[in-house]
Design goal:
Helix content is 38%, strand content 15%. The protein has 14 helices and 14 strands. It is globular and about 55 Å long.
């Protein structure tokens, strides 16, 4: 197989960050030295929020910090070696959320972002400026420049921001639905559609299919771009052995009526031949029995080790995804 010169990854969260690092390493192993030109990452911005007057972009920052090598791998979020003096002071003032910790270095990022946004820069322009600080080996793009924060709605008509439901309540409150206000007026951020159209392969990271990949696909024009590209679209299951890898994605899936299984998530994305977005779907060795169900959807099923335990296994998974179809 020829080496892909242009790879696009749709990603969000910690799992997405690990996978993107694996893709970058896989491209380097294939002899592609200029991964910045070869790899474009479209980041979920559905879990963004305003807090204490600053704009937070959790998935964007997780991807940026991971690619820069400054992420806190123990906690899974934020900057390595961060302190929390400012956060403690905010709590003394009764500001912010006491259950949502902001590190001092992380706050520096949020303050810089907010200042640039106030100056009139778009989220795309802000992320370009942020990316220039480090050698990331990838081009990062937000999924859209429109604010489309995820709101969790409940059966009693109450609602809260996704971050409160996820971080404070740990998804213990049964959601009725997830909503992204303004998403009907959104468009893919500048450069996203062109990157997908010109790609040699498009990869869906093993991120939460409902609140990470879901908002990306919900941006008007995004799914059309995936269906129209000549590049194969390959996804990686976030479900292994009938269980979520991390987080509470099973609660999110249940809320939209989807079973927690690799085949069910493949059906959620759908086959391109049937109006969906997938050509191939990687499932874990633990889910071999679901391979035929995936094939029946019109999606090629590829069985591979999915656990990203370290840099080597992440790169191996990325290579398996790139090799899943002929390019």
């Amino acid at each position: 197989m020829t080496a892909p010169a242009r790879v696009v990854v749709l990603a969000g969260g910690v799992g997405g960050s690990k996978f993107v690092l694996g893709v970058r390493d896989a491209l380097l192993t294939r002899g592609i030295a200029d991964t910045t030109s070869a790899l474009t990452v479209v980041a979920n911005t559905g879990d963004d929020l305003w807090l204490s007057g600053v704009r937070l972009q959790p998935d964007v920052d997780s991807l940026t910090y991971a690619l820069a090598g400054v992420n806190d791998t123990k906690r899974g979020w934020g900057r390595a070696g961060d302190t929390e003096r400012v956060n403690a002071e905010l709590q003394q003032w009764g500001a912010g959320w006491p259950w949502f910790t902001l590190g001092d270095l992380d706050l520096g990022t949020h303050l810089a972002r907010t200042g640039w946004l106030r100056d009139g820069l778009t989220p795309t322009q802000v992320l370009e400026r942020m990316s220039s600080r480090w050698q990331l080996g990838a081009r990062l793009l937000p999924m859209t420049d429109t604010e489309v924060d995820t709101i969790v709605e409940f059966s009693d008509a109450s609602r809260m921001h996704f971050q409160e439901w996820w971080t404070r309540h740990r998804a213990s409150l049964a959601p009725a639905r997830f909503n992204n206000p303004n998403i009907d007026r959104a468009r893919p951020a500048p450069g996203v559609e062109a990157a997908i159209a010109e790609a040699d392969i498009v990869l869906l990271a093993p991120s939460n299919p409902v609140v990470s990949i879901g908002p990306i696909l919900a941006v008007p024009g995004m799914s059309d771009a995936l269906r129209q590209t000549s590049a194969p679209v390959v996804g990686v299951s976030p479900i292994i052995g009938g269980r979520v890898v991390r987080g509470m994605a099973d609660v999110c899936l249940s809320a939209i009526g989807v079973h927690t299984s690799a085949a069910a998530v493949a059906a959620l994305y759908g086959a391109r031949s049937e109006g969906g977005v997938l050509d191939a779907w990687l499932i874990g060795e633990e889910d071999l029995a679901e391979s035929s169900a995936v094939e029946e959807l019109g999606i090629r099923s590829v069985v591979a080790p999915l656990w990203m335990k370290d840099a080597a296994t992440s790169a191996a998974l990325a290579e398996a995804a790139i090799s899943a179809v002929s390019i």
